[in-house]
Amino acid sequence: MKSNGSWLSTLNPSCKLIVHVLVMAVLMAIRDPLLTLAIWLVAVLIGISVAGWTIGYLLRRLLPYTLFFVLVCWMLATFGKGEHVLWQWAWFRVTTESLNNGLLIGLRMLGFVTYGMLFTSTTDLNRMMMSLIHQLRLSPKWAYGMLAGFRFIPLFQSELQQMKIAHRIRGYRQGHGGKAFLRYALPLFSQGVRKSERIAIAMEARGFTGTRERTYYVQPMLARRDALYAVALLGVTTVLIIWL
Amino acid sequence: MSRTWNMKEVVLAVILSVACGVVYLGWSTLWIPISALVGPVGAGFMFGIWVIASPIVAYIIRKPGAALIAEVAAAAVEMLTGSHFGLSALLIGVFQGLGAELAFAIFGYRRFNVWTLMLSGALAAVGSMVYSVIANGMGYYTPTMFWLTLGIQVVSGILLGGLLAKIVVEALARTGVLNSYEMMKSRRRRGTGNGLPTGS
C-alpha cells in the first residue's frame, strides 16, 4: 500500500477509511440495482478526478473483477430463489427476482472493490498506522508491532516459494489438504516464532515501551479537506438514495 | 493470567498471523483448480484453512482479543499484497475473527483445548456466512444451496480450522520455540513436566 501522489492521497487515512467503510455499509443495505450502479459510478468518478486513476489503469484493474461479477450474477440468477420464471433450460432456472438479485450483488461487489481500491491505491501504510495512533487512539505497541510484522510478508512469501522448490527438487509431489499445509506451514511458523522473539527483544532493547508518551516522526492531523471529502461523498450518497 | 499484552506477545501474534496470511495466498491459488473440478460447494471443504490464524494464535497466547486480531492481521496481508478485494477482505476478516473470538469469550478465556479450538473454527465459519449474507447476497440462493454451503463450511472450519490448528501448535511446541509463551507456561504451572505433550 503506497500513496500515489493524488489529491485523495493527501487526506487523513483514518477519515478516508471510515468514510469508505460507511459507504460500503450503505451498499450492503441497498436492494436496488440502479441505485447500486449510481453509487459505484460515484466511486469511478472520484477515482478519475481526484485519485489519479487513468482510464487504462481502471480498465486493467477492474476488468478481471468484472468477469468475476458476471459469473456471480449468473450463479445467483440461475441458482437463486424466485417465483416468476423468465427462462428455463435443464437445471438453469432464471426468474425475475433472481435476475434482479444477481445484478444487485454483482454491482455491489464491484462497488466494494472500487471503494476498496480508492482507499488502498492512495494510502501509505506507514501514514495509515500513524493516523490510527493519533486519530483512532490505537496503542503504539500494536501499531508498531503490526508495522514490524507486515514487513515480513515478502520474506515469508519467498521462504514459502523456496520450500516448495526444495521439496520439488527432492521429488516430493504436492498433495492437497491438511498434510500439504503442515509440510509448508510448520517450518514457516517455527521460523516466524523465532523471528518475532528477536524483533520484540530488539524493539525493547532500543527503548520501545509501547506507551503513548513518545515522540513521533510524523503526526497526521485532520484538516478541512478531510471534512470536505467526508461531507461531499456521504452527501452525494444520501442525495442519490433520496432521489432514486 | 495477566490480560495485558507484552511486546513479545504482540509481535508473535502479528508475525504468526502474517505467516498464516501468506499461506492463505498460496491456498487461494490451490483453490481455483479444485473449485473448477468439483464446483464451489465442494471446494467449500477447503474453507477451514482461511480461519486457522485465530485458533493458532489464541491457543498460544490465551488472551482476550487474540483470535480477532489474528484473523484481521491475516486478512490485512491480502490487502497489502495488492489484491483489490482489499477492504472487503479486511471486513471478512473482522467477521471471521469475531466469530472465532466468541468461542473463547463464552468460556471466559479460561478454556483453551481442542474443543474450544474446534468451536472457534465453526463460529468463524458462521461469522463468514453472516458477512456473505449481508454483503454477497448468500441469502438469495435457494435454501438448499444456503444450508449446504453453511454446513460444509462449518465442518471444514472445525476440521481444517480448529483441529488442524491444534495439531500445528502441538508440533510447534515440540520444537521448543513456544516455551516462553502462555500456552507452555500454563502447562508448566499445572506441573506436566516440561509442558510437552506426553509421548514426545
Automatic annotation (TrEMBL), chain A:
Membrane protein topology class: Multi-pass membrane protein
Main localization (coarse): membrane
InterPro entries: ABC/ECF_trnsptr_transmembrane, ECF_transporter_component
Transmembrane segments: 6-30, 37-56, 62-80, 101-122, 227-243
Localization per record: Membrane
Keyword field: Cell membrane, Membrane, Transmembrane, Transmembrane helix
Pfam family, any one: CbiQ
PANTHER family found in the cross-reference section: SLL0384 PROTEIN (PTHR34857)
Name of the protein this chain belongs to: Energy-coupling factor transport system permease protein
Organism: Paenibacillus hunanensis
Organism phylogeny: Bacteria, Bacillati, Bacillota, Bacilli, Bacillales
Automatic annotation (TrEMBL), chain B:
Pfam families registered for this protein in UniProt: ABC_cobalt
Xref: PROSITE patterns: PROKAR_LIPOPROTEIN
Transmembrane stretches, start-end: 31-53, 87-107, 114-134, 146-169
Keywords, comma-separated and alphabetical: Membrane, Transmembrane, Transmembrane helix
UniProt cross-references to InterPro entries, sorted A to Z: ABC_thiamin-permease_prd
Domain of life, source organism: Bacteria
Protein name in UniProt: Energy-coupling factor transport system substrate-specific component
